[in-house]
Design a protein that fits this description.
It is an enzyme of class 1 (oxidoreductase). It comes from Eubacterium plexicaudatum ASF492. Pathway: Cofactor biosynthesis; NAD(+) biosynthesis; iminoaspartate from L-aspartate (oxidase route): step 1/1. It catalyses: L-aspartate + O2 = iminosuccinate + H2O2. The protein has 12 helices and 16 strands. With about 400 residues, the chain is an alpha/beta fold. The chain folds into 2 domains: about 280 residues, FAD/NAD(P)-binding domain; about 110 residues, Succinate dehydrogenase/fumarate reductase flavoprotein, catalytic domain (Flavocytochrome C3, Chain A, domain 1). Strands 1, 2, 5, 6, 7, 8 and 15 form a 7-stranded mixed β-sheet that branches. It binds flavin-adenine dinucleotide (FAD). The site of flavin-adenine dinucleotide has 42 residues, from helix 1, helix 2, helix 5, strand 6 and helix 11.
Length: about 400
């Protein structure tokens, strides 16, 4: 199989990159699972946006403080400065963010944010955004989507990437030749016993990078989310109790039903406090109290969380729920520059599988969807500028360069 651009992964980063590539490029997106089984569809809380210039310094500081000041400052600046444009584009795709009564966008808050700056759609923001991106992609004749097609490895020669080896749904293994390959395979949660991620997200692109001596960065930096619903039985995927629940007033209690921590600490600090409390209590969980949130707010903002808890036997309007930390996010990844370029030519990495240092040692809540979209678009722009063209195939028959094709009137 041959294509101009191969994108591995159809979460928000892969889809957004595809939408920003020139329409005269033939693009193939593959995914290991079905089209909707990506972490992007699971995102609950929301996506950050710089509301206006008065919030720039605080947003920058909150991101840096959460990341223990080990963030790449330029990446942070690019992300924050690009947020308005990304949100405008999302609105253009029909993404329906919550609005105030006067029609203005509504903003909520999560842990470690000093201000309300998070856009949301109930507690299924990721589904709303990624679903709309997928709809757009499906309308593009130049983009081909292949489900149940797993990248087994990338193909390299002289430290340049020329595509990937994939296994198709029927088990057939084949090579996909591509002038340019974009790795958008998400996180590593599938490797952990307890994670909020899909099981099939096992850091395959990072493994390929390590095999081919492509630079990686901060791969020891893994975020543990403080609050997932505790279940005594082992679950395929831990159910997240979004941080925005705490942003709206939910409290955490020890076994004696007493508060023991500031619920809006950065995720790593709160996780450490919860684990210490669990040890002190000799319990496998602590309690989270959502009764502190007005019932109407609970019903309109968190219907998905309420429904899932009800399914598990908890009425969150009447009782506390048991919560426990679980693996959630991968700050490290394949080292990239601000344009998503890796250390190998013709190979890009975007989204959670990439690392340009934007999150430092700990990601600030709701910066991930934003970062994925911002740097996916920049990678697409870079690919477009370079006008990647097909390389000679194995028989030595050189494909016509795009410009030549245009000249030939094809
Ligand atoms: C429960 C939950 C809630 C979250 N809430 C928020 C939030 O509110 N706000 C926020 O900003 N972030 C949130 N996040 C994080 C955010 O959703 C992710 O970081 C982001 O969506 C990652 O997007 P992505 O495109 O990089 O990867 P993903 O969306 O995970 O997509 C990865 C894609 O790669 C494919 N893939 C993987 N391996 C292979 C392979 N070998 N071959 C082919 N395809 C492959 C997968 O099938 C999938 O299509 C949340 C995450 C979770 C799990």
């Amino acid at each position: 199989m041959r294509t101009d651009i191969l994108i591995v992964g159809c979460g928000c980063s892969g889809l957004y990159c595809a939408l920003h590539l020139p329409k005269d490029m033939q693009i193939t997106i593959i995914t290991k699972s079905d089209l909707e089984s990506s972490d992007s569809f699971l995102a609950q809380g929301g996506i950050c946006m710089l509301k206006d210039e008065t919030d720039y310094a605080d947003y920058f500081e909150d991101t840096m403080r959460a990341g223990h000041y080990e963030n790449d400052r330029t990446s942070v600046e690019i992300m924050i400065r690009s947020s308005g444009q990304v949100v405008r584009e999302l609105l253009g795709y029909g993404v329906d963010f919550q609005r105030e009564a006067d029609g203005n966008l509504a903003f909520t808050k999560e842990g470690a944010h000093s201000k309300n700056r998070i856009l949301f759609h109930k507690d299924i923001t990721g589904k709303e955004i990624t679903g709309k991106l997928l709809e757009q992609v499906k309308q593009c004749a130049h983009i081909q989507l292949l489900e149940y097609t797993e990248m087994l490895d990338i193909i390299t020669k002289d430290h340049s990437c020329s595509g990937a080896v994939v296994r198709r749904a029927d088990g057939a293994v084949e090579e996909v030749e591509a002038a340019c390959t974009v790795l958008a395979t998400g996180g590593v949660g599938g490797l952990y016993e307890r994670s909020t991620n899909y099981r099939h997200l096992t850091g395959d692109a990072v493994a390929a990078a390590l095999r081919h001596k492509i630079a990686v960065r901060d791969i020891h930096e893994v975020q543990i989310h403080p609050t997932t619903l505790y279940t005594p039985d082992k679950e395929d995927r831990c159910f997240l109790i979004s941080e925005s629940v705490r942003g709206e007033g939910a409290k955490l209690y020890n076994k004696n039903m007493r508060r023991f921590v500031d619920e809006l600490l950065p995720r790593d600090e709160l996780t450490a406090a919860i684990l210490a409390q669990m040890e002190e209590d000799g319990m496998p969980y602590v309690w989270e109290d959502l009764r502190t949130i007005p019932v109407k707010e609970l019903q309109t903002h968190f219907p998905n969380i309420i429904a899932h808890c009800a399914q598990m036997g908890y009425d969150v309007a009447k009782e506390c729920i048991p919560v426990v930390p679980a693996q959630h996010y991968f700050m490290g990844g394949i080292r990239t520059d601000y344009e998503g370029r890796t250390s190998m030519s013709d190979l890009y990495a975007i989204g959670e599988t990439a690392c340009n240092g934007v999150h430092g040692r700990n990601r600030l809540a709701s910066n991930s969807l934003l970062e994925s979209l911002v740097f996916a678009k920049r990678a697409a722009d870079d690919i477009a500028v370079k006008r990647h063209v097909k390389k000679p195939d194995r028989n030595g028959t050189e494909n016509l360069k795009r410009e030549e094709r245009k000249g030939a009137g094809k």
